[in-house]
Amino acid sequence: MEPVGAILFRWRKRQKLTGLQLGKRVGMSQAKISRLETGAVAAEPGDVRLLAEALGVPPGEAELAIELAEHAGERLIEWVPAGRDQAERQREIGRAEAAAKEIRILQPAVVPGLLQTSEYARAVLSAHEGRAATGSNDAAVTEAVIARQERNRILHSPAREFHFLITEQVLRVGVGGPAVMISQIDRMREVAGFPNVRLSVITDEAELPIPIYHGFFVADDRWVSVDLFTALLRATGRTIVRDYRELFDQLESAARSDIDDLLDHYQARYVGALQPKSVAR
Hints:
Elements: H1 4-14, H2 19-26, H3 30-38, H4 45-54, H5 59-72, E1 77-80, H6 86-98, E2 102-107, H7 118-129, H8 135-151, E3 161-167, H9 168-172, H10 178-192, E4 197-202, E5 216-219, E6 223-227, E7 232-235, H11 238-253, H12 260-274
Parallel strand pairs: 2-3, 3-4
Antiparallel strand pairs: 1-7, 2-5, 5-6, 6-7
């Protein structure tokens, strides 16, 4: 099935108009026309109707595209594509987070980005690059770490509410080594004390209403994203966002929010790992 953006592009080319010319006709910027055509943003049915009228598209053809736009939001589509450098990926996520008032993040594998220390972020992003952060690669990772830390400022906005949900495995897997994990747990403890933050842990013993297949991010009731190794997928449809929101709430109800002793346990384990081993005589 032809994507909505490709249809819009074909309509414009048929009329031999530039993006700038079409934008002036309908009161949109050239940048928005480009984003709609490339699929960087989902085309709203109203946008499709407006463009169809401006381009003189036959009613039957226009209605098919409008219907496609109405249902497109119910599918997860690529948001930040593979190949985008990691710093730009972080900035794109940060722009989306800045527009949200209520954020829910489930992460079963690593500490959520908004909670990461710079050392932990470097370990994650370096591993994502697939090789040690040295030479030119080190510069790229450093830029991505800085961009990720910039995202963390949003936590200090009292007008926003954050729900973080991790599995106990996130605490158990020592990303970056013991010293990095000790600092990371301190950071998680600090942020968990913010009045606008709820951090919960799904323990190994928790009885889950449904298996956790992957992590995801729900922003308000407007969109959901799924973080893959090479790309981010996003959907804006009302039904799929509602389903992910309900799933998050179910999993959060099975998790622990009184986590101080759990954090103490794993922090003590990492402290112990740094102690010199006694030599038997």
